[in-house]
Design brief:
Length: about 270
């Protein structure tokens, strides 16, 4: 009778692990299907161009759900083990995993509040480029980085040692309509050994334009040099939002530590390990 019970418990444990694997593949399949559908309807692989509050909400909901799935499957695995010894070992394993994942999330979350991080992002995302010898150049840029941490604030164009015409347009519009000249230029100016000065990027930051890619199309005398400088402004609140997301997720994982610890203590009475 006892052997039959153990076989039934083992069967339930195997089924639980099968369900967990199936759910993992289902999640990956749904994610892959969404990307395929997104591409079919004419999108591009820039799904991260979301306002930070929305992105944090989506990620928080996903991690929150994953955390409770983690806990639910951990409890099921402990309950369906074939002996108290294996239950204690399983509880110990899940307790350690909860702690490790929680510590990782909390450390990274705390790092997001460090003042050096926004300064580093600002330095890394700044565009400061000089064209070399030649007649035609294309320099592309996006008003916002893929994760919404920095935004283009100002740009300046400086031409030395000759003359250059600089056009700024949306990449897709420019590529499709350049031959006919029917693209919309956001900037079109010929500079001869002079500079535009500092100009605002506000026209690129409206909701319908902020997620698009733009190009500086440069036609110049071969010896002329064109310098493009795009200054970025960093949103500290974006780092704080992602930091809170990670810290909250870490705290959620810590909740499972006392739960699995209590189960471990409960089954230690009939276990050969402590």
């Amino acid at each position: 009778m006892g052997r039959m019970m153990k076989e039934q418990e083992l069967t339930r444990l195997e089924k639980l692990n099968q369900v967990r694997k199936i759910l993992t593949w289902v999640v990956f399949a749904v994610f892959f299907l969404l990307i395929v559908v997104f591409l079919i309807v004419g999108g591009n692989l820039n799904p991260f161009y979301l306002p930070i509050p929305d992105a944090v909400t989506v990620c928080f909901a996903g991690i929150f759900t994953a955390t409770w799935f983690f806990g639910a499957f951990a409890l099921g695995e402990i309950a369906f083990e074939v002996s108290d010894t294996r239950r204690v070992l399983s509880a110990r394993k899940h307790m350690k995993k909860s702690l490790v994942y929680a510590i990782i999330l909390i450390v990274f979350g705390a790092f997001m509040f460090h003042p050096a991080l926004p300064l580093s992002v600002k330095a890394l995302t700044k565009t400061d480029m000089n064209t070399g010898y030649g007649k035609y150049f294309n320099i592309s840029f996006t008003p916002r980085d893929p994760h919404g941490f920095s935004y283009a604030e100002t740009f300046s164009i400086t031409v030395t040692n000759g003359c250059a015409t600089v056009v700024i347009a949306e990449v897709r519009d420019f590529t499709e309509n350049y031959a006919s000249g029917r693209y919309h230029p956001y900037f079109n100016q010929t500079l001869n050994n002079t500079t535009t000065g500092v100009k605002s990027c506000a026209q690129f930051l409206t909701p319908d334009k902020i997620g698009k890619e733009y190009v500086f199309y440069i036609v110049k005398q071969p010896d002329a040099n064109v310098r493009i400088v795009i200054e970025k402004t960093v949103r500290v609140d974006a780092f704080n939002s992602w930091g809170m997301l990670m810290l909250s997720s870490g705290v959620l994982l810590i909740v499972w530590v006392p739960v699995t610890f209590a189960l471990k203590k409960k089954f230690e009475k009939g276990s050969v390990v402590r």
